Structure formats: C-alpha cells, structure tokens
Amino acid sequence: MPDPIFDELTRELPQPALPAAEVRRLGDRRRRRTRAATALAAVAAVAAIAAPVALSAGGGGRAIDPVETPSPHEWVITIAEDFPLTDGMALDPAIPAQTGPLDPAEAESLQRLDALLSLHPCGDRQPAWTIEDSLDGAWAAWSDGKSGGEFRTLAVYRDGASAEEALARVRKEVETCPAAEPGAAAIQPVPLASAAGEESFAYVDHYLDKDGPTGMGTVYLLVRVGNALLLHQTYHEGTGQLARVMQAAVDDLQARSEPVVRSLCVYSEDGCDGE
TM spans, by residue (predicted)? Predict the structure, then answer.
C-alpha cells in the first residue's frame, strides 16, 4: 500500500507569488553570472591556444623558425648536341643513322620528316601530337632500305605536367578512335602494354584495305621521363591480328629503347643521381 509519508513529501504545496521587484533583481543577477561565465570561457580558450605556441617557442623567448618552402624544380628545357638519341637502335655499322635537331618553330619547313613531327593514330583526323607544342626537339632515323627502319623523336616541354598532357592526348586519341568501316582503306590503332620510363604508352597502327588487315603497320612506343617525351617507332610487316605478335613487337622496341630512356634521367625531377 502507498506510504503516507511519501505522499506527504511529494504533494505539491502552493507557493506565494514573488513581488515584481524581486523578480527583476533575480533576473539581473542571473544575467551577470551568464556574462561572467562567457568571459571566463573566452579567456580559457585563448590560453589553450597560446600555451602550445609559447612552449614551442622555448623558454628563452626565441622566435619560431618559419617553415621552409621548397624551391620550384628547374626543368632542363634544351637537348644537348651530344645526347645519345641513337643508343640501342638496330643499327648496321655499315649504315649510320641520321640525326638532327627539330626546332618546333621551323616544323612547317621540315615536312620531309613528317613522320617525326606529328602523330595521326586515326588517319586523317587532327594530329594527336605535334613537335610544335614542345620547346626543343631532336630526331634520329635509320634504315637499311629493306626493313622499313626505325625513327626516334625527342621532345622537351616546359615542365613535367606539359609532357604528361602530351602523352595523355595520344592515349586518348588511340583509345577513342572510331572503328574503320568494313571494306574501307584505313588506319586502325590498337593499344598495347608497355612499362618504360616514368610512364609510357604503346600502340600499333594497322593498315587496312578492302579485304581487311594487311598484316602491315607501324609500332609506336611513347616514353615520358620528367618533362621529356621520347617517341620510338618502327615499321612492321608482321603485325597481323595476333595479339602476341603485336605485343612482341612492342617488347622488342621497348628493349632497344632502354639505353636512351636511361639517359633521359637529366629531365627527371630526381636527376641522374636519384636512380
């Protein structure tokens, strides 16, 4: 049964109303306490922030050392006359390679070297890459008059990001090239695997006629190191449709490119001492 004592303790008792003056006095006192508590909280917050700074400065009042900002990398934007661009090419000692500079500003007057000046993965479309977008260039070519030969182009850009963009444009063009219409003479690029330099991209341009693939094509390997982009290409008569045959052609080109790719370290952010 309910405890009568508990009932007495919990019973609400009537409270007399406070005079108006007393209500105002209590309200003023509460507001003063609220303002004081707010001020103390602000002081405590400032102290909490300032204390670690003061401790890090040391007890002797030493100034905090500023954080050193690394200086921007100075990119090499020219190609030395003795750069070994022909290293690793499939050369016959009796047939020397031809080499020379490629001034981007004079590209229009070098149309005889068109294959070294630009890339047209999809045939007649706008070039996916051109030497005119670079700051300096050089080329090397070798042919025995039978096998189609090898060609290399070296392009140097303002910085690493510009070289990355140049390579990305070629990759995008190859990967988005529309399929050739059946029975039409066309060039059909096929991307392939590669692993050279800081990044690379390889593909084969298949030559098609009314009967389909001719088995002939050009193998391309693009290698970026820092702000330099190396284009290595060679003509093949056995590209066909077999993926392993095409990949073997790229692997061979990549192996022959290794010596010159190593020399491209002068264009990397780490330099040749960072290897």
Answer: 34-55
